[in-house]
Amino acid sequence: MLQNQIKEEKSLLQRGWWLALLILLSLIAPFVISEFYLTILCEALVMSLLALSFNLLFGYMGQLSFGQAAFYGLGGYAVAMLMTKAQFNFWLSLIAGPVLAAIIGLIVGYFCVRLRGIYFAILTLAFGELIFFIVFKWHNFTGGDDGIQGVFPPEFLKSLISYYYFILIVFLLSAFILWKIIHSPFGQTIISMRENSERTEFLGINIARYQLIAFVIAAAFAGLAGAIWVPFYRSVAPSYLTWIKSGEPVMAAILGGPSLFFGPILGMFIMTFFHAWVLGFTVYWPVVMGALILVVIFFLPGGILGFIQEKVHQRRERLNQLMEK
Amino acid sequence: MFLQTQGITKEFGKLRAVNNVTLEIKKGDIHAIIGPNGAGKSTYFNLVTGYHRATSGKVLFRDKEITNLPAYSRCNLGITRSFQITSIYPKLTVYESVLMGLLSHRKVTLNFFSSAKKFFKEEVWRTLEDVGLADQANTLGDSISHGDKKRLELAITLGTEPELLCLDEPTCGMSPEETDIAMSLIKKFSEERGLTILFTEHDMSVVFGIAKRISVLHQGTLIADGTPQEVRASEEVQKVYLGGSA
Q1: Contact A195 B90 (CB under 8 A)
Q2: Is residue A232 helix, strand or coil?
Q3: Mean predicted confidence (pLDDT) in B14-35
């Protein structure tokens, strides 16, 4: 029955025109939205990259990392320290961000991948806080709670619009690479580990090894997100590494839908823009965000995108049934 | 020597679940491990496949000691298993599930940039046709019937192209019709692919219908090992297990 090949069911979200439209919109965004919202858009893109890196572990590998911001912060600190203290070139510093995050990710991951579920989450949280405290307390080296200021990008990237395009390019390239990884045999392997790690181990897969590789990849992309954000913001602070920051990608994934590639991006965009909007009339942002998360958990358990995809799928099924009749 | 356990013992606290079992499984055999509930069949099985580590004794596969090798390493040497409670991928399609075994066995799981679905299409479809699941290729693992899940697990394990396939209660929970289909499949694979099959089973008609060799465990100890005729004739086996009626 070779003709019965898998029908690669293209969901609404996988269709190219959606993506093309979104990319087109992001290309023209600097000319149609205000500087304020362009800044928010930059933040949303950078944080979406952090959320995508987190979701490689959470949505695809089935492990909740509660320390992803530590790698984001390390990427940022690597850039800030190399540029301001060692007078490194911007591009070299930028590369050093994900490299440092990956190296620390390798060390932290070595211990974390031996655990599963809540224990994995707690250990990532513990390591995240440990890294935060080292950065926070080591005043002579990291600037402690003062952070590091005066991290400037090269001249041609100093304007908001040019740096926006730079962030957009890095985001699109990173998202493409992560997409490829998720759909590769490696991606299939970590998905199968999420579904049934015992079965996968008994197919010859060293679970800890693959978890570690995914952990390092996720750390590197989180580090890259931090590395591109710091020159935009011109400074870095220990708050980048806190568990509160680590909670943002968790909430974004739950909000948008962790089982879909674009879920955490949608979640992060909603959170970032909603945050900017809500702060315009109340400082009680966490209350509003908490209510939103509650609504999603109770009424849209697969996240907003998961809900939309389910509805589209149901509609298509109904249409197919009608056509068959 | 294909697979051999030498004086293998497994203790859980004060309970000795498998006691000093020395046994050889010959290449190409369909070898059944039987025994009453609590006899140590599953534990013995787990010692061979790496699910448990032995308290003492040795497991040898192709003359190489594998006693302390983790499960994935044993699988890479050619030992694959199914589980008593069917172990499949509930949220992967039948096709993706079978593909996973092949991706692992053919060592492409560290490929990061090619689409997984481009790999081994022919092999996946052939395996699906062999087990009769081709028409359910796009169905999720948890949406197929119990018997089909057992067949799917068999198909997943076949993807690793094992030399020794260990099946823990392969017909557990199956209807008589499903049992017949499953056992004829196992026999077919043993003959066509030269697979050695080690299985535990509680259904005596299945055991005596397919096994070329049978080993009987009782309270963790091996009390008989031989052809079905020899085992059937064993007084000790009749006394402790078959109730004298075999």
Answers
A1: yes
A2: helix
A3: 93
